[in-house]
Amino acid sequence: xxxxxxxxxxxxxxxxxxxxxxxxxxxxxxxxxxxxxxxxxxxxxxxxxxxxxxxxxxxxxxxxxxxxxxxxxxxxxxxxxxxxxxxxxxxxxxxxxxxxxxxxxxxxxxxxxxxxxxxxxxxxxxxxxxxxxxxxxxxxxxxxxxxxxxxxxxxxxxxxxxxxxxxxxxxxxxxxxxxxxxxxxxxxxxxxxxxxxxxxxxxxxxxxxxxxxxxxxxxxxxxxxxxxxxxxxxxxxxxxxxxxxxxxxxxxxxxxxxxxxxxxxxxxxxxxxxxxxxxxxxxxxxxxxxxxxxxxxxxxxxxxxxxxxxxxxxxxxxxxxxxxxxxxxxxxxxxxxxxxxxxxxxxxxxxxxxxxxxxxxxxxxxxxxxxxxxxxxxxxxxxxxxxxxxxxxxxxxxxxxxxxxxxxxxxxxxxxxxxxxxxxxxxxxxxxxxxxxxxxxxxxxxxxxxxxxxxxxxxxxxxxxxxxxxxxxxxxxxxxxxxxxxxxxxxxxxxxxxxxxxxxxxxxxxxxxxxxxxxxxxxxxxxxxxxxxxxxxxxxxxxxxxxxxxxxxxxxxxxxxxxxxxxxxxxxxxxxxxxxxxxxxxxxxxxxxxxxxxxxxxxxxxxxxxxxxxxxxxxxxxxxxxxxxxxxxxxxxxxxxxxxxxxxxxxxxxxxxxxxx
Amino acid sequence: xxxxxxxxxxxxxxxxxxxxxxxxxxxxxxxxxxxxxxxxxxxxxxxxxxxxxxxxxxxxxxxxxxx
Lengths: 661, 67
Known about the structure:
The structure holds two protein chains of two kinds. Chain A is an alpha/beta fold. The radius of gyration of chain A is 28 Å and the shape is elongated.
């Protein structure tokens, strides 16, 4: 049995999904957290639950909203669980009506029922159920209230339900009748499907219109101009609104006086204050960086590094020697794999801390406020505050950041956000930053890393300004953001969300970084004359030395760094492991010592800037191609990154050397 | 600033995608909203309607509220 979860954003849909399933999905209090559908196994049953992105209606404005309509066109779930915010039922029911018209069995779930009680209102469920033609159940997923009863209802085989038939104006009714009759007769559609398709088509649903054109549904295509000229979409909307108002008026019961959302309002007085809002936003991010790099992440990383490079590496070396392993194999395992993969894994605590902080921001409801306080700034470069969220998510991983850009309504703004996302410093770059700042800026690690993050933001905004002048994006922006109530983050939600984000990094350590490390070990251990213990005669040295004149203006004077940068295109984490292998360093301290002996702090900072900007990784390039549907934009992104990385890095090196000597 | 009530009109002057999103969030012709916050330099405004707070561009709000 397949059950689909459909509902507005900010209805607690994904929290409910986590409570109902044995496995989990990422939870967030920001539109677009579920950017693709997610699947889970329903507790105590063989049924699977599909978590679809939050949508306000089946007529999509954004790419992630299209996922739901496409799902309904291509699938026939056995049951639909329509999750609503009980406190915002009027607007939530607009989607409910569209789903009831679809005709598959549905349960209407009034989640966040406490919010409704606080408004001093209750609804008679029998009246709602009778008018909408489906069962109605209440929950408060954050406190687990009503979850058991809902789970029990979902386990049962759903009873058949007649599709909801609304009393549209006569001309709309007649048009629906004619179109659906023709679709049933000439195209073999079921009556309910034909009717739903016709209504959605008249309502200017662009996914359904594309579907009709693809299937060549002449009864609909031939009437397009008539439907639009008669403003059928407005008539459909007004009928639905009247039905909802009648239904809610009939079902409403007043309980007591309402209590305003005191907590959220008080917090918002400070957080969204016109003067303080932006400085608070900056302070929050400074705090995140201090936690990740100074107070929590780095000390744990240091402990882990001393264990991996010390007792662990020594024990493996002894064991291999005792087992009689060949020196070349011992070199591969100890100098290659343990130094390389281990050198990246020691950064897991820092990355975990960063992701935990981002998850707390998502779950608390702050992300919507971040969009609000940054909107005026983003307006200057032809974007809106909503673009800031994918960019922040890009701090974790550029791929998920680009995916989150799907929530942006305006296609040009979405494209620009996608193209500037790779300039945001993702967590994969952290290991190499960690090494360089420890070597050259030991007393100001968090500040230097923060400055690199800010450099990424400044470059992204400057490039966006360039695109604004090119695309003329300023006038058509859609910036309407719902500010959900604040939630005190739940520990299990934060844990799941942090693990979901971090597990990719750990997984990569076992796959891409492992392979990259072996590759770089092979390149640095073999040369034209075969196996060599002198890396200066290796293939990696040949490649690095050939490019040395080109990168000398950036202060890069050692071929080992160039070879390591090459592998960074595979995945940014590999830069660190490559350097460990190239410099034959057993631990971070040895590599830090090696780097410190031949680079100045200015050259080190220029190198950090180059690593930040020079190229998106393979996965990001693939995602740009997928999201823009164009190889051209992918190649453009690569070329522009290289040019900007080279230019900015040279400016820092030359300027810094002139100023500081 | 002290909250002030506005009745929303002139939806026909709003661009289609923005209009759809306003409808999605329960903002219709004749709806009364409370202005909670303005941002400097014609930045976004926060309005409250039916127990929910929504941020939108000043230009859109000014058109709807007839400012």
